[in-house]
Amino acid sequence: MKVGVFDSGIGGLTVVKSLLDNKLFKEIIYFGDTARVPYGIKDKNTIIRYAIEAVEFFKNFELDLIIVACNTVSAHALLEMREASTCPVIGVVEAGILATANALKDKNSNILILGTKATINSKAYEVGLNAEGFQNLQAKATGLFVPLVEEGIYSGEILEATFKHYFGALKKPDALILGCTHFPLITDSLKGYFTEDTIFIHSGDAIVEQLEKDFDFKEKFEITKLEFFASENPESLKSIAKEWLNL
Ligand code: DGL
């Protein structure tokens, strides 16, 4: 299969990493809308408009599937993308809800959902988790993590201060949903702040779990052809991809 992976910027590369680690696809076309990132502070109509433009961009490539590697877009524009697309479109929020339900036996588990303002305001995770029988939820918009990760800050004093600012009043959760594809880069620091046995739900691993459930993958691809596109400064996206994906 030839797939398109879409994010507002570089965060979706953490999903590409999971796809590559699991050798699922022969060809991946990545598009990051770097000229207009962050999406997480924008309103629903704007997110939908940008997401449909991404679908139009992908029409240049005869894709078999589009993976929305952005929680913000998945929470607000998945239906509209499906309507605009000629191939199937799947998103990380649905996958994250399923992965959480599979990972947690106890329906009383306390789950902390982190994401951008737009993702948290959509309540997409809460609605989905409620439908799976989970009621003990906390949700927190932690948008500052996005520029910190973009700045290459994955640990240290500034991040710790941000944790205190966001999490000071929260109860330590049994599971934490990394509801933004930038956040896996700070997982080690988050593990240090919370407890080692907190279960982390990662959008990339969740989407792999969903893909393996929904599709019959007959082959493993040792080599995946990768192409990277960005709406601004593609060279910068390519060099970050090289670093994060060990290319
Ligand atoms: N990577 C995006 C997500 O998963 C967030 C970044 C942004 O605000 O555009 O929600």
Give the arrangement of secondary structure elements.
Elements: E1 2-7, H1 13-21, E2 27-32, H2 44-58, E3 65-68, H3 71-84, E4 89-91, H4 92-103, E5 111-115, H5 117-122, H6 124-131, E6 137-141, H7 145-150, H8 157-167, E7 175-179, H9 187-193, E8 199-202, H10 203-214, E9 225-230, H11 234-244
Parallel strand pairs: 1-2, 1-3, 2-9, 3-4, 5-6, 5-7, 7-8
Helix pairs in contact: 1-10, 2-3, 4-6, 4-10
Bound molecules: D-glutamic acid.
Quick synopsis:
The protein has helices spanning 13-21, 44-58, 71-84, 92-103, 117-122, 124-131, 145-150, 157-167, 187-193, 203-214, 234-244; strands at residues 2-7, 27-32, 65-68, 89-91, 111-115, 137-141, 175-179, 199-202, 225-230.
CATH topology of the largest domain: Rossmann fold
Q: Name the helicity range.
A: 40-55%
Please tell me the CATH architecture of the largest domain by its name: 3-Layer(aba) Sandwich
Shape: globular
Strand percentage lies at 15-25%
Which whole number gives the mean pLDDT? Answer: 96
Architecture overview:
This protein is α/β, with parallel strands linked by helices and 247 residues long. The chain has 11 helices and 9 strands. The longest helix has 15 residues, at 44-58. D-glutamic acid (DGL) binds at residues 7-9, 11, 37-40, 70-72, 116, 119, 146, 180-182.
List its traits.
single chain; Rossmann fold; 4-stranded parallel β-sheet; alpha/beta; 5-stranded parallel β-sheet; 247 residues; 2 domains; binds D-glutamic acid; globular
